[in-house]
């Protein structure tokens, strides 16, 4: 397990010039990992760079180039990639700021996209988030991730096995596959949350406890985090489907529209989970209120049942010289019988009215 460094905040960059390369966020890898994948319909080549100097010796070939970087905490790596691909300083700045909201920026020769991927921890009941930056050019795609998550491994396997259309189409189709994989990841997280939420609802219907309330609020907070990432991503993909065809060819547009439909489905599923969580809060409050009412009713029944007994005991406890039954040898038993009889009658009345159940 990689030990995470203290998180750097935006306040640490206050006063710096725009485009300053400063990593903001958590350091989630020990050192950056740079991988390169070049392919066309006939061949595929892979390479892994151990240093920036080694990457300078590589000469790109024909076909589509996919450069992936794990770990964003070394600005000199970003500066070198920016120099090689002529990226704007603001793009490099946004890549290093790992709290960006999903967006799409057109820089003329290339398109810069930001998305977020999520993982659900079933033990801690939390959702972790990582930023993914994608740069789409004419014949290249650059991806920047905070750490290796395996999100894009299925795409690499398909390219290696030459399955599907990826090797035959251009960089825009690769960018579509990356977006589609990110959106599909949302379905996995939502299904895990939905399953745990249903279990939580069953537990809540059996007995409402303060621990369940904490869990409900935790799920509410995590779904809000997901919502903040999915809603902007829907608008990003919608803008890509309506934009000109400089980056996404007509053959790729239908696939983008399919991703947009998936994002709408994700949002609908997410809203359904949020409604379920809100309903569970209402159930919890109603259950607690009903429990309090039951306890108050039981206490009221007990108090009302023994109130005549207390009245009788109070009467016979008065210090008068002449009172009925005080001189009688059976007075004590008669008083107890009156108390017990009245209590039994009251209990029978409450039982017939179903106030004791």
Could you please describe the fold and organization of this structure?
With 357 residues, this protein is of the alpha+beta class. The protein has 2 domains: 10-287, Beta Polymerase, domain 2 (2-Layer Sandwich); 296-352, Magnesium transport protein CorA, transmembrane region (Methane Monooxygenase Hydroxylase, Chain G, domain 1), CATH 1.20.58.340. It has helices spanning 52-56, 75-85, 89-96, 153-161, 171-206, 210-242, 253-316, 331-352; strands at 33-39, 44-49, 64-70, 103-106, 111-121, 126-136, 140-145. A 7-stranded mixed β-sheet has the order 2-1-3-7-6-5-4. Strand 5 (111-121) and strand 6 form a beta hairpin. Helix 5 (171-206) packs parallel to helix 7 and helix 7 packs antiparallel against helix 8 (331-352). It starts with 32 loop residues before the first strand and ends in a 5-residue tail after the last helix. The relative contact order is 0.08.
Descriptive labels:
alpha+beta; 7-stranded mixed sheet; 357 residues; 8 helices; Beta Polymerase, domain 2; Methane Monooxygenase Hydroxylase, Chain G, domain 1
Quickly describe the structure.
By secondary structure, the chain is an alpha+beta fold.
Counted up, domains total: 2
CATH superfamily of the largest domain: CorA soluble domain-like
Instruction: Give helix and strand order, one letter per element, not per position.
Output: EEHEHHEEEEHHHHH
Cα shape: rod-shaped
* Biggest sheet, spatial arrangement of strands: 2-1-3-7-6-5-4
Mind summarizing the main beta sheet? Answer: 7 strands, mixed
Number of strands: 7
Topology-level CATH name of the largest domain: Beta Polymerase, domain 2
Could you say which structural class the secondary elements and strand pairing correspond to? alpha+beta
Beta-strand content: 5-15%
Helix content range: 40-55%
Residue-averaged pLDDT, rounded? 83
């Amino acid at each position: 397990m990689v030990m995470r460094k203290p998180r750097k905040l935006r306040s640490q960059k206050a006063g710096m010039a725009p485009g300053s390369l400063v990593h903001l966020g958590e350091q989630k890898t020990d050192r950056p990992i740079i991988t390169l994948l070049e392919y066309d319909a006939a061949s595929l080549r892979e390479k892994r760079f151990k240093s920036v100097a080694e990457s300078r010796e590589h000469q790109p070939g024909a076909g589509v180039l996919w450069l992936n970087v794990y770990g964003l905490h070394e600005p000199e790596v970003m500066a070198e990639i920016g120099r090689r691909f002529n990226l704007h300083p603001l793009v490099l700045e946004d890549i290093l700021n790992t709290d960006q909201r999903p967006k799409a920026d057109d820089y003329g020769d290339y398109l810069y996209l930001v998305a977020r991927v999520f993982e659900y921890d079933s033990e801690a009941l939390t959702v972790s988030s990582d930023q993914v930056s994608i740069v789409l050019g004419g014949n290249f795609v650059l991806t920047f991730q905070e750490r290796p998550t395996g999100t894009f491994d299925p795409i690499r396997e398909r390219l290696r096995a030459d399955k599907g259309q990826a090797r035959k189409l251009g960089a825009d189709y690769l960018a579509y596959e990356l977006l589609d994989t990110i959106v599909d990841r949302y379905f996995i997280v939502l299904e895990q949350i939905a399953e745990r939420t249903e279990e939580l609802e069953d537990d809540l219907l059996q007995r409402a406890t303060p621990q369940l309330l904490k869990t409900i609020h935790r799920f509410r907070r995590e779904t809000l985090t997901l919502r903040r990432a999915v809603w902007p991503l829907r608008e990003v993909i919608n803008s890509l489907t309506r934009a000109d065809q400089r980056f996404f060819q007509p053959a790729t547009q239908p696939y983008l529209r399919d991703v947009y439909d998936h994002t709408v489905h994700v949002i609908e599923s997410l809203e359904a989970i949020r409604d379920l969580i809100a309903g569970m809060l209402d159930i919890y409050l109603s259950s607690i209120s009903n429990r309090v009412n039951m306890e108050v009713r039981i206490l009221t029944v007990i108090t009302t049942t023994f109130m005549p007994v207390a009245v009788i005991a109070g009467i016979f406890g008065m210090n008068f010289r002449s009172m009925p039954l005080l001189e009688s040898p059976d007075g004590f038993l008669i008083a107890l019988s009156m108390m017990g009889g009245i209590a039994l009658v009251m209990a029978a009345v409450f039982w017939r009215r179903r106030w004791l159940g």
